[in-house]
Design goal:
The protein folds into two domains: 133 residues, Alpha-Beta Complex (Aspartate Aminotransferase, domain 1), CATH 3.90.1150.10; 235 residues, Type I PLP-dependent aspartate aminotransferase-like (Major domain) (Aspartate Aminotransferase, domain 2, 3-Layer(aba) Sandwich), CATH 3.40.640. By secondary structure, the chain is α/β, with parallel strands linked by helices. It contains 13 helices and twelve strands.
């Protein structure tokens, strides 16, 4: 049975070009980038070349980028590194953040730091004025994601960053779902910290980057050697960085055409389902979202049941964040947007990528129609609306 992958927000397959760079770097760039001999300096050259490629995608200076193990570590480093040294502090975030932000914030609360979780509206967009109203004299950090991993909704980061800058408060943005999908210019966006992850961009897992604006106060999360200009100790993964750099380069080259192509596929998917299946709604803002994401609620059907039914037919989709799989509770993102627990449990995330085609989308629509029709026939609670 052929399989078709529609879960690119969870992770992406490694692209052939990135894999070629990765394997070549594994063979040739094996030196320790901190060593002064030939192999070490060759590895250093490869590492810094990759750093420049990441910086081009982000629109920042290469010296402002730090390589680390992924988005989760980058978020933790930005959050804990911003709060360190404050006897009393207050942090502002939102109710729809990824667990890689929410859990560090909860840990801060356990340590006596106060955290405000700003709500979002029904479309999943935070109001910058709600951020402003949450400010306090002891606020030291605002952390708001750029793109939501479940709905694809884009947040008004520039407006929030202006509020932070006017108030002299550090601004962190989790950009894991934005990088490679929408244009970025961190000089213009004016945030202090920005997080990205390689495995969301057709590169191997275990590599990420944290933008730290020059002059921003920061205490490293991991201590040891003087790696990454003393911002993240540990011998650098040079092949992983080389692959990540190539992924950033390819994303920059392909972004405009790929964004339009995936947006067309997403719209084809949504219209195909909405035209043929009753009682389906789109979760999130249909305009302010990245081009590859769609989150649909199928009334009267458990989302997990749809995921399983589609998986048996060869289609990989998701009922929420991959980092929350196995959770009993429904999506905290959809609940924060005002959905009932039942409707949140009835929602499915489709996230498209480079491998998807019109034929795959059409086959997925047929499979969704068949699966939902069958599951509703078996449901004791579903009643079709007139």
């Amino acid at each position: 049975m052929r399989r078709f992958y529609f879960d690119h927000n969870a992770t992406t397959p490694i692209s052939p070009q990135v894999l070629a760079v990765y394997t070549e770097a594994l063979r040739e760039s094996f030196g320790n980038a901190s060593s002064i001999h030939h192999e070490g300096q060759a590895a250093r050259h490869r590492l810094e070349a990759a750093r420049r490629q990441v910086a081009v995608l982000l629109g920042c200076n290469a010296k402002e980028t730090v390589f680390l193990s992924g988005g989760t570590e980058a978020n933790n480093a930005a959050i804990f590194g911003s709060v360190a040294g404050h006897a009393r502090a207050h942090v502002i975030t939102t109710s729809i953040e990824h667990p890689a932000v929410l859990e560090p914030c909860r840990e801060l609360q356990r340590r006596g730091i106060e955290v405000t979780y700003v709500p979002v509206g029904a479309t999943g967009v935070v109001n910058p004025e709600d951020i402003r109203r949450s400010l306090r004299p002891d606020t030291v950090l605002i952390s708001v994601m750029h793109v939501n991993n479940e709905t694809g909704t884009i947040q008004p980061i520039a407006a929030i960053a202006r509020i932070a800058r006017e108030s002299g408060i550090l601004m962190h943005c989790d950009g894991v779902q934005a990088a490679g999908r929408i244009p970025l210019d961190l000089e213009e966006l004016d945030v202090d910290f920005y997080t990205i992850s390689a495995h969301k961009m057709y590169s191997p897992k275990g590599m990420g980057a944290l933008f730290i604006r020059k002059g921003t106060p920061f205490r490293p999360l991991i201590l040891g050697g003087a790696h990454e200009s003393r911002r993240r100790a540990g011998t650098e993964d040079v092949p992983g960085a080389a692959a990540f750099g190539e992924a950033c380069r390819l994303s920059q080259v392909r972004m405009n055409t790929e964004a339009q192509r995936t947006a067309n596929l997403r719209d084809r998917l949504e219209s195909g389902i909405l035209d043929r299946v009753a009682d389906v709604t789109v979760n999130g803002d249909r305009q302010l979202r990245v081009p590859n994401s769609s989150n649909l609620c199928f009334d009267g059907v458990e989302g997990e049941a749809i995921v399983i039914a589609l998986d048996l037919k060869g289609f990989s989709v998701s009922s929420g964040s991959a980092c929350s799989s196995g959770a009993v509770e429904p999506s905290h993102v959809l609940i924060a947007m005002g959905l009932s627990k039942n409707r949140a449990r009835s929602s499915i995330r489709f996230s498209l990528g480079e491998s998807n085609t019109e034929d795959q989308v059409d086959a997925l629509v047929d499979a969704v129609v068949a699966a939902v029709t069958r599951l509703r026939e078996l449901s004791p609670t579903y009643v079709a609306h007139a």
